[in-house]
Amino acid sequence: MDRLLAIASRIGANARDTDELRLRKTILSAFVIAFWPLPLVWSIVYLGYGEVPAAAIPFAYDVIALASLAVFAATRSFALFRTINLLSFILLPLLLQIALGGFAVSSAVVMWSVVAPFAALILSGVRSAVTWLALFGAELIIAAALDSGLSHSNALPAPLVTAFFVLNIGALASVAVALMATFVSQKDLATRLLGREQERSESLLLNILPPEIARRLKAGESPIADSYDEATILFADIVGFTPLSQQLEPKEMVGLLNEIFSEFDRAAERHGVEKIRTIGDNWMGVAGVPSPRPEHAAAVARMALDMCATLDRLRARGEHRIDFRIGIESGPCVGGVIGLRKFVFDIWGDPVNTASRMESHGVAGRVHVGEAAYELLKDAFELEPRGVIEVKGKGAMCTWFLLRERAAGSADSRSDEGAGRAEQVRPPA
Hints:
It is a single chain. With 429 residues, this protein is of the alpha+beta class. It has 2 domains: 2-203, no CATH class; 214-425, Alpha-Beta Plaits, CATH 3.30.70.1230. 60% of the residues lie in helices and 16% in strands. It is built from 15 helices and 8 strands. Strands 1, 2, 3, 4, 5, 6, 7 and 8 form an 8-stranded mixed β-sheet that branches. Helix 11 (250-271) packs antiparallel against helix 12. The chain is rod-shaped and about 115 Å long.
């Protein structure tokens, strides 16, 4: 069957064909190729018993079917190929029944005309099948009306007539099953291919949006907007990347940026940080959004330290052209998806702006921490006071540099010390 379908799929093929049209062409071509020996056997049997007119009709079908296949291969006109074969299916069985003398003595060969609506359903669709089914019904009425005027006799022996009854019923059932099996197998293939495309689309969507947001968007929710009481935002920016990009070849620049941001993405996945976006040489992520989590600040702090480790690895291999600043801050924010095209999940709020300022006012190679994030991190991480700095759009702020995570059991002993150091640099109220 696979070899037959492979041959049939090449007959009349056109690169511009849709998958559906290609399937229909393959089914009809395969049917003509596989079916032609049966009418030839009928023709030989009828001829052997002296029924020359009856023998000519199945032989004529083979000539017409194979000729139409050759014309189809040459012209690629599927409409003509389909129409010729459907007309043959509907007309020739009636003519054969008349030539053999009626319903009973012909083994009700007119039943073969039912192949026409079957084929039309698969090759053209429901509307066409209804038309051909109506023609089949009209043909049965004509056959019944003509039956009383026919001879009801021929040279075929009774056992052969009975055998042909069995053959006609069995062969028609086989044809119906073969047509539907071919259609179903091709449909299953199309369904599997569609499933793969849907999985690919789902994967692409999940690369753009968090899973929770993607499900809501697919369900038709729009706009999507949620408030989050607690989250920690991280910004990382490569220092001096604009002049560096002017010195590098485009492929080298993109390759270097891709290597660094890929490391950031892997770190985000390890620590459960949601990547929001990259713009140029700037990477932004958040923890606690869109799924709330109590340890959001610690997750972002660990990721920031991982980013610093990435910088150390780059320097260890001799890459001294790259340095970056990191800024983090915590607090309430709003997240959502807006717009009609190229959906992006984004977050807004004062902590987002402050985290961005922590990055832009930071120091290369260090993690700059805002006051709210410091309060959440001071017990579990070591932080160095930077003092009071003037932050654009925010005024005077106390900020810290993240150094490292405290060893287990050391948080209690150092929490008071960290708080005291913080008080020393806190501006007066």
